[in-house]
Amino acid sequence: MDMRKTMNMDLIYSFFDAANMHRWNDHLRPMDLTELDKQAHKMVIAWVLAKFEGTEKKESVNWRKLIEHAMFSFIRRTILTDLKPQLFHRMVIEKEKEMNEFVLREFDARVPDMEKKFRERFIAYLNKGAMSREDRILKAAHYLATSWEFRLVYNANPSMYGIDRTKGDIERQIREYADVSGVVRLFFGKDAFDFIDLCGQLRFQQRWARVPRIPQTTVLGHMLMVANMVYLHDADVGADDATVYKNYFTALFHDLPEVLTKDVISPIKTSIDGLDELLSEYEKEMISSSLLPLLPEEWHDEFLLLIDDPFGGRDGMMIKACDLLAAYVEAHVSECYGISSKALSAGKEELRSKLLSLRTDVDVKGLIERLDAMHI
Protein backbone atom coordinates (compact mmCIF):
# COMPACT_ATOMS: atom_id res chain seq x y z
CA MET A 1 0.00 0.00 0.00
CA ASP A 2 1.34 3.43 -1.01
CA MET A 3 1.63 5.54 2.19
CA ARG A 4 2.97 8.65 0.49
CA LYS A 5 1.12 11.85 1.33
CA THR A 6 0.42 15.12 -0.41
CA MET A 7 1.31 16.98 2.80
CA ASN A 8 4.99 16.30 2.32
CA MET A 9 7.72 18.19 4.20
CA ASP A 10 10.01 18.22 1.17
CA LEU A 11 7.32 20.10 -0.77
CA ILE A 12 6.57 22.38 2.19
CA TYR A 13 10.26 23.28 2.47
CA SER A 14 10.49 23.98 -1.28
CA PHE A 15 7.71 26.55 -0.87
CA PHE A 16 9.44 28.08 2.15
CA ASP A 17 12.76 28.25 0.30
CA ALA A 18 11.15 30.82 -2.03
CA ALA A 19 11.75 33.29 0.81
CA ASN A 20 15.38 33.11 -0.36
CA MET A 21 14.43 34.02 -3.95
CA HIS A 22 14.83 37.79 -4.28
CA ARG A 23 12.83 39.65 -6.89
CA TRP A 24 13.96 42.76 -8.81
CA ASN A 25 17.49 42.09 -7.55
CA ASP A 26 18.99 43.93 -10.51
CA HIS A 27 17.21 47.12 -9.39
CA LEU A 28 17.54 49.42 -6.40
CA ARG A 29 14.77 48.30 -4.03
CA PRO A 30 13.27 50.24 -1.11
CA MET A 31 12.65 46.87 0.61
CA ASP A 32 13.43 43.21 0.03
CA LEU A 33 10.95 41.60 -2.36
CA THR A 34 10.81 37.80 -2.32
CA GLU A 35 9.10 35.17 -4.42
CA LEU A 36 7.26 33.73 -1.40
CA ASP A 37 5.65 37.10 -0.71
CA LYS A 38 4.85 37.63 -4.39
CA GLN A 39 3.04 34.28 -4.56
CA ALA A 40 1.09 35.13 -1.40
CA HIS A 41 0.02 38.51 -2.76
CA LYS A 42 -0.90 36.85 -6.04
CA MET A 43 -3.34 34.53 -4.23
CA VAL A 44 -4.99 37.43 -2.40
CA ILE A 45 -5.49 39.14 -5.76
CA ALA A 46 -6.69 35.89 -7.35
CA TRP A 47 -9.38 35.61 -4.66
CA VAL A 48 -10.58 39.14 -5.44
CA LEU A 49 -10.61 38.51 -9.20
CA ALA A 50 -12.40 35.19 -8.82
CA LYS A 51 -15.02 36.80 -6.59
CA PHE A 52 -15.60 39.46 -9.25
CA GLU A 53 -16.00 36.69 -11.83
CA GLY A 54 -18.72 35.15 -9.71
CA THR A 55 -20.61 38.36 -8.94
CA GLU A 56 -20.34 39.97 -12.38
CA LYS A 57 -20.48 36.99 -14.76
CA LYS A 58 -22.55 34.81 -12.44
CA GLU A 59 -20.22 31.91 -13.20
CA SER A 60 -18.77 29.86 -10.38
CA VAL A 61 -15.01 29.42 -10.31
CA ASN A 62 -13.44 26.01 -9.73
CA TRP A 63 -11.68 26.99 -6.53
CA ARG A 64 -9.89 23.67 -6.13
CA LYS A 65 -8.36 24.03 -9.60
CA LEU A 66 -7.47 27.67 -8.90
CA ILE A 67 -5.65 26.76 -5.68
CA GLU A 68 -3.87 23.71 -7.05
CA HIS A 69 -2.82 25.36 -10.31
CA ALA A 70 -1.42 28.25 -8.27
CA MET A 71 0.67 25.71 -6.36
CA PHE A 72 1.83 24.04 -9.58
CA SER A 73 2.83 27.42 -11.00
CA PHE A 74 4.68 28.17 -7.76
CA ILE A 75 6.54 24.85 -7.93
CA ARG A 76 7.64 25.56 -11.49
CA ARG A 77 8.80 29.05 -10.54
CA THR A 78 10.89 27.77 -7.60
CA ILE A 79 12.61 25.29 -9.91
CA LEU A 80 13.32 27.80 -12.66
CA THR A 81 14.58 30.27 -10.02
CA ASP A 82 14.69 33.91 -11.05
CA LEU A 83 14.89 33.83 -14.83
CA LYS A 84 14.10 37.20 -16.34
CA PRO A 85 10.46 37.29 -17.54
CA GLN A 86 11.45 37.87 -21.17
CA LEU A 87 13.65 34.76 -21.16
CA PHE A 88 11.11 32.69 -19.25
CA HIS A 89 8.29 33.48 -21.69
CA ARG A 90 10.54 32.79 -24.68
CA MET A 91 11.50 29.42 -23.23
CA VAL A 92 7.83 28.57 -22.70
CA ILE A 93 7.16 29.24 -26.40
CA GLU A 94 10.30 27.77 -27.94
CA LYS A 95 11.40 25.05 -25.50
CA GLU A 96 8.25 24.13 -23.61
CA LYS A 97 8.67 20.35 -23.86
CA GLU A 98 12.31 20.42 -22.75
CA MET A 99 11.56 22.91 -19.98
CA ASN A 100 8.69 20.81 -18.62
CA GLU A 101 10.85 17.69 -18.65
CA PHE A 102 13.52 19.55 -16.68
CA VAL A 103 10.95 20.87 -14.18
CA LEU A 104 9.56 17.38 -13.58
CA ARG A 105 13.03 15.86 -13.11
CA GLU A 106 13.89 18.53 -10.57
CA PHE A 107 10.55 18.13 -8.81
CA ASP A 108 11.09 14.38 -8.48
CA ALA A 109 14.58 14.96 -7.12
CA ARG A 110 13.39 17.52 -4.58
CA VAL A 111 10.18 15.75 -3.58
CA PRO A 112 10.92 12.06 -4.21
CA ASP A 113 8.02 10.69 -2.14
CA MET A 114 5.16 12.81 -3.46
CA GLU A 115 1.68 11.31 -3.48
CA LYS A 116 1.03 9.72 -6.87
CA LYS A 117 -2.17 11.52 -7.90
CA PHE A 118 -0.79 14.97 -6.99
CA ARG A 119 2.25 14.26 -9.15
CA GLU A 120 0.01 13.12 -12.02
CA ARG A 121 -2.02 16.32 -11.81
CA PHE A 122 1.20 18.32 -11.81
CA ILE A 123 2.31 16.56 -15.01
CA ALA A 124 -1.10 17.27 -16.58
CA TYR A 125 -0.72 20.94 -15.61
CA LEU A 126 2.72 21.16 -17.22
CA ASN A 127 1.43 19.61 -20.43
CA LYS A 128 -1.91 21.40 -20.63
CA GLY A 129 -2.95 23.17 -23.83
CA ALA A 130 -5.14 26.25 -23.70
CA MET A 131 -5.43 28.05 -20.40
CA SER A 132 -8.58 27.49 -18.36
CA ARG A 133 -10.53 30.38 -16.86
CA GLU A 134 -8.84 29.65 -13.53
CA ASP A 135 -5.42 29.85 -15.21
CA ARG A 136 -6.32 33.21 -16.74
CA ILE A 137 -7.38 34.51 -13.32
CA LEU A 138 -4.06 33.37 -11.87
CA LYS A 139 -2.08 34.89 -14.72
CA ALA A 140 -3.91 38.19 -14.32
CA ALA A 141 -3.25 38.09 -10.57
CA HIS A 142 0.42 37.37 -11.28
CA TYR A 143 0.80 40.50 -13.42
CA LEU A 144 -1.20 42.67 -11.02
CA ALA A 145 1.06 41.56 -8.16
CA THR A 146 4.07 42.36 -10.35
CA SER A 147 2.58 45.77 -11.11
CA TRP A 148 2.16 46.43 -7.38
CA GLU A 149 5.83 45.60 -6.81
CA PHE A 150 6.90 47.68 -9.78
CA ARG A 151 5.33 50.82 -8.32
CA LEU A 152 7.78 50.50 -5.42
CA VAL A 153 10.72 49.72 -7.69
CA TYR A 154 9.95 52.45 -10.23
CA ASN A 155 10.06 55.22 -7.64
CA ALA A 156 13.55 54.13 -6.65
CA ASN A 157 14.80 53.73 -10.25
CA PRO A 158 13.14 56.47 -12.35
CA SER A 159 16.22 57.08 -14.50
CA MET A 160 17.47 53.49 -14.82
CA TYR A 161 18.04 52.30 -18.38
CA GLY A 162 15.10 50.25 -19.62
CA ILE A 163 12.78 51.07 -16.70
CA ASP A 164 10.12 52.62 -18.92
CA ARG A 165 10.23 49.63 -21.28
CA THR A 166 9.62 47.37 -18.29
CA LYS A 167 6.70 49.58 -17.28
CA GLY A 168 5.23 49.27 -20.76
CA ASP A 169 5.70 45.50 -20.80
CA ILE A 170 3.82 45.07 -17.53
CA GLU A 171 0.96 47.28 -18.70
CA ARG A 172 0.73 45.35 -21.96
CA GLN A 173 0.66 42.02 -20.13
CA ILE A 174 -2.15 43.19 -17.87
CA ARG A 175 -4.19 44.42 -20.83
CA GLU A 176 -4.03 40.89 -22.29
CA TYR A 177 -6.21 39.77 -19.38
CA ALA A 178 -8.67 42.65 -19.43
CA ASP A 179 -11.48 40.12 -20.03
CA VAL A 180 -11.03 38.81 -16.48
CA SER A 181 -13.53 40.59 -14.24
CA GLY A 182 -11.90 43.14 -11.96
CA VAL A 183 -8.58 43.42 -13.79
CA VAL A 184 -9.16 46.88 -15.24
CA ARG A 185 -10.59 48.34 -12.06
CA LEU A 186 -7.76 46.94 -9.94
CA PHE A 187 -5.11 48.14 -12.38
CA PHE A 188 -6.50 51.68 -12.27
CA GLY A 189 -6.78 51.67 -8.49
CA LYS A 190 -10.55 51.37 -8.22
CA ASP A 191 -12.99 49.33 -6.14
CA ALA A 192 -11.10 46.60 -4.21
CA PHE A 193 -7.62 47.95 -5.06
CA ASP A 194 -7.25 49.40 -1.57
CA PHE A 195 -7.90 45.93 -0.16
CA ILE A 196 -5.09 44.29 -2.12
CA ASP A 197 -2.87 47.29 -1.38
CA LEU A 198 -3.52 46.92 2.34
CA CYS A 199 -2.83 43.18 2.15
CA GLY A 200 0.40 44.01 0.33
CA GLN A 201 1.52 46.01 3.35
CA LEU A 202 1.89 42.71 5.20
CA ARG A 203 4.98 42.26 3.04
CA PHE A 204 6.52 45.04 5.14
CA GLN A 205 5.83 43.30 8.47
CA GLN A 206 8.55 40.91 9.57
CA ARG A 207 7.79 37.75 11.50
CA TRP A 208 9.47 37.09 14.87
CA ALA A 209 9.81 40.75 15.84
CA ARG A 210 13.22 41.62 17.29
CA VAL A 211 14.52 38.06 16.77
CA PRO A 212 17.39 37.76 14.22
CA ARG A 213 16.58 35.15 11.56
CA ILE A 214 17.45 34.11 8.03
CA PRO A 215 15.43 34.35 5.90
CA GLN A 216 13.44 37.18 7.46
CA THR A 217 10.01 36.04 6.42
CA THR A 218 6.98 38.32 6.45
CA VAL A 219 3.43 37.99 7.70
CA LEU A 220 2.06 37.71 4.16
CA GLY A 221 4.50 34.97 3.17
CA HIS A 222 3.67 33.07 6.36
CA MET A 223 -0.04 33.26 5.52
CA LEU A 224 0.56 31.51 2.19
CA MET A 225 2.68 28.82 3.85
CA VAL A 226 -0.19 28.02 6.20
CA ALA A 227 -2.75 28.06 3.38
CA ASN A 228 -0.68 25.71 1.21
CA MET A 229 -0.22 23.26 4.07
CA VAL A 230 -3.95 23.36 4.80
CA TYR A 231 -4.71 22.52 1.17
CA LEU A 232 -2.21 19.65 1.14
CA HIS A 233 -3.84 18.24 4.27
CA ASP A 234 -7.33 18.55 2.78
CA ALA A 235 -6.16 16.79 -0.38
CA ASP A 236 -4.97 13.86 1.74
CA VAL A 237 -8.23 13.51 3.66
CA GLY A 238 -10.44 13.93 0.57
CA ALA A 239 -12.16 17.13 1.69
CA ASP A 240 -15.06 18.32 -0.47
CA ASP A 241 -14.83 21.46 -2.62
CA ALA A 242 -16.66 23.72 -0.15
CA THR A 243 -14.35 22.67 2.69
CA VAL A 244 -11.26 23.12 0.51
CA TYR A 245 -12.32 26.68 -0.32
CA LYS A 246 -13.21 27.66 3.23
CA ASN A 247 -10.13 26.15 4.84
CA TYR A 248 -7.65 27.48 2.29
CA PHE A 249 -8.85 31.08 2.34
CA THR A 250 -9.40 31.06 6.09
CA ALA A 251 -5.73 30.10 6.36
CA LEU A 252 -4.65 32.63 3.72
CA PHE A 253 -6.36 35.48 5.60
CA HIS A 254 -5.79 34.22 9.16
CA ASP A 255 -3.27 36.94 10.08
CA LEU A 256 -4.84 39.71 8.02
CA PRO A 257 -5.95 41.71 11.10
CA GLU A 258 -2.25 42.20 11.88
CA VAL A 259 -2.13 44.82 9.14
CA LEU A 260 -4.33 46.87 11.49
CA THR A 261 -2.74 45.93 14.84
CA LYS A 262 0.81 44.79 13.98
CA ASP A 263 2.16 41.46 15.18
CA VAL A 264 1.98 41.21 18.97
CA ILE A 265 4.17 38.28 19.99
CA SER A 266 2.67 35.55 22.17
CA PRO A 267 4.79 36.20 25.32
CA ILE A 268 3.44 39.75 25.51
CA LYS A 269 -0.16 38.63 24.91
CA THR A 270 0.02 36.04 27.67
CA SER A 271 1.99 38.10 30.21
CA ILE A 272 -0.44 41.02 30.33
CA ASP A 273 -3.77 39.98 31.82
CA GLY A 274 -6.67 40.67 29.49
CA LEU A 275 -4.52 41.92 26.59
CA ASP A 276 -5.40 39.02 24.28
CA GLU A 277 -9.14 39.63 24.73
CA LEU A 278 -8.69 43.38 24.28
CA LEU A 279 -6.76 42.86 21.05
CA SER A 280 -9.42 40.48 19.75
CA GLU A 281 -12.15 43.03 20.45
CA TYR A 282 -10.10 45.81 18.85
CA GLU A 283 -9.43 43.68 15.77
CA LYS A 284 -13.15 43.07 15.25
CA GLU A 285 -13.85 46.80 15.46
CA MET A 286 -11.06 47.59 12.99
CA ILE A 287 -12.20 44.89 10.57
CA SER A 288 -15.67 46.40 10.47
CA SER A 289 -14.48 49.98 10.13
CA SER A 290 -11.32 49.62 8.02
CA LEU A 291 -11.37 46.31 6.11
CA LEU A 292 -14.94 45.54 5.13
CA PRO A 293 -15.53 48.92 3.43
CA LEU A 294 -12.74 48.03 0.97
CA LEU A 295 -14.74 45.10 -0.43
CA PRO A 296 -18.10 44.97 -2.24
CA GLU A 297 -20.92 44.77 0.31
CA GLU A 298 -22.24 41.47 -1.05
CA TRP A 299 -18.93 39.80 -0.06
CA HIS A 300 -18.97 40.98 3.56
CA ASP A 301 -20.79 38.08 5.22
CA GLU A 302 -18.63 35.45 3.55
CA PHE A 303 -15.41 37.35 4.26
CA LEU A 304 -16.32 37.67 7.95
CA LEU A 305 -16.84 33.91 8.11
CA LEU A 306 -13.33 33.42 6.73
CA ILE A 307 -11.52 35.71 9.16
CA ASP A 308 -13.70 35.83 12.28
CA ASP A 309 -12.28 32.80 14.12
CA PRO A 310 -9.69 30.97 12.00
CA PHE A 311 -8.77 28.47 14.72
CA GLY A 312 -12.32 27.68 15.79
CA GLY A 313 -14.87 25.33 14.31
CA ARG A 314 -14.41 21.82 12.98
CA ASP A 315 -11.16 22.45 11.11
CA GLY A 316 -9.71 25.16 13.34
CA MET A 317 -7.29 22.87 15.17
CA MET A 318 -5.94 21.60 11.85
CA ILE A 319 -5.36 25.17 10.65
CA LYS A 320 -3.70 25.98 13.99
CA ALA A 321 -1.39 23.00 13.56
CA CYS A 322 -0.35 24.30 10.13
CA ASP A 323 0.15 27.79 11.58
CA LEU A 324 2.45 26.48 14.30
CA LEU A 325 4.24 24.17 11.88
CA ALA A 326 4.97 27.09 9.54
CA ALA A 327 6.44 29.01 12.47
CA TYR A 328 8.51 25.96 13.45
CA VAL A 329 9.92 25.77 9.91
CA GLU A 330 10.87 29.46 10.13
CA ALA A 331 12.81 28.90 13.36
CA HIS A 332 14.37 25.58 12.36
CA VAL A 333 15.66 26.77 8.99
CA SER A 334 17.29 29.83 10.54
CA GLU A 335 19.11 27.63 13.03
CA CYS A 336 20.24 25.38 10.18
CA TYR A 337 21.69 28.47 8.50
CA GLY A 338 23.63 29.23 11.71
CA ILE A 339 21.53 32.20 12.83
CA SER A 340 20.00 31.64 16.24
CA SER A 341 19.49 33.26 19.63
CA LYS A 342 18.16 32.42 23.04
CA ALA A 343 14.74 33.77 22.05
CA LEU A 344 14.63 31.82 18.79
CA SER A 345 15.69 28.53 20.40
CA ALA A 346 13.17 28.95 23.19
CA GLY A 347 10.46 29.82 20.68
CA LYS A 348 11.28 26.78 18.57
CA GLU A 349 11.12 24.42 21.54
CA GLU A 350 7.82 25.92 22.66
CA LEU A 351 6.41 25.45 19.17
CA ARG A 352 7.60 21.85 19.05
CA SER A 353 5.97 21.13 22.40
CA LYS A 354 2.69 22.72 21.35
CA LEU A 355 2.67 20.87 18.03
CA LEU A 356 3.28 17.46 19.59
CA SER A 357 0.52 18.03 22.14
CA LEU A 358 -2.15 19.05 19.61
CA ARG A 359 -5.07 16.72 19.00
CA THR A 360 -5.22 16.85 15.22
CA ASP A 361 -5.08 14.49 12.26
CA VAL A 362 -2.07 16.36 10.84
CA ASP A 363 0.97 14.07 11.05
CA VAL A 364 2.88 16.63 13.09
CA LYS A 365 5.41 14.15 14.48
CA GLY A 366 6.27 12.71 11.07
CA LEU A 367 6.60 16.13 9.44
CA ILE A 368 8.89 17.42 12.21
CA GLU A 369 11.03 14.30 12.06
CA ARG A 370 11.42 14.67 8.30
CA LEU A 371 12.35 18.35 8.65
CA ASP A 372 14.90 17.54 11.35
CA ALA A 373 16.46 14.89 9.08
CA MET A 374 16.75 17.14 6.02
CA HIS A 375 20.13 18.58 5.07
CA ILE A 376 19.37 22.30 4.82
Question: What's the short version?
Answer:
By secondary structure, the protein is an all-alpha fold.
Helix and strand layout, with pairings?
Layout: H1 9-16, H2 35-56, H3 63-79, H4 85-94, H5 96-110, H6 116-126, H7 133-156, H8 163-175, H9 183-187, H10 193-200, H11 219-237, H12 241-252, H13 258-261, H14 266-271, H15 275-291, H16 300-307, H17 316-336, H18 342-357, H19 364-373
- Number of β-strand runs: 0
Fraction of residues in helices? 55-70%
CATH architecture: Orthogonal Bundle
Give the topology string: H per helix, E per strand.
Answer: HHHHHHHHHHHHHHHHHHH
> How many H/I helical runs?
19
Distance between the termini: 30 Å
Features:
mainly alpha, Hypothetical protein af1432, 65% helix
Structure commentary:
By secondary structure, the chain is mainly alpha-helical. It has a single domain (9-373), classed as Hypothetical protein af1432 (Orthogonal Bundle). Helix content is 65%, strand content 0%. It is built from 19 helices and no strands. The protein has helices at residues 9-16, 35-56, 63-79, 85-94, 96-110, 116-126, 133-156, 163-175, 183-187, 193-200, 219-237, 241-252, 258-261, 266-271, 275-291, 300-307, 316-336, 342-357, 364-373. Helix 17 (316-336) runs antiparallel to helix 18 (342-357). The longest helix has 24 residues, at 133-156. The model has no long low-confidence stretch (mean pLDDT 91).
